[in-house]
Amino acid sequence: MLVKFVVYFDGENWCARGIGISIFTQGKTLDELMDNVKEATSLHFEDVLEAGEEIRVLSISEFEVHPVAKASGC
Question: Which residue in 3, 5, 18, 35 has its CB near the most CB atoms, within 10 A?
Answer without folding.
Answer: 5
